[in-house]
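Figure 2 data, in text form.
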Amino acid sequence: QVQLVESGGGLVQAGGSLRVSCAASGLTFSSYAMGWFRQAPGKEREFVATISWSGGSTYYADSVKGRFTISRDNAKNMVYLQMNSLKPEDTAVYYCGRIVILPDGADYWGKGTLVTVSS
């Protein structure tokens, strides 16, 4: 069965950086686009970024464009989200998702990792 396990969340000051990771298993990882989503307290889950199966194409929400970078390592079944210039409004639980409809249609998510940005 598909398992996605996020890690790397934590507390960071505004303007700082953090990288979250997602370990995938139970799927042919290199055949799927992978994405990151987030859910802030009291809000619905929203799309953050997606990377194609090869890594050749990426998609970003306008709110993170230029600050966040998604990447993947198909040899390790890993996907990453490098977050720079973090803002308090980036505070959320970040989820990794298996993308089945580009750019943001996911069918599996992990349990998430909490990122808190203090002002």
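Caption note: The radius of gyration is 13 Å.
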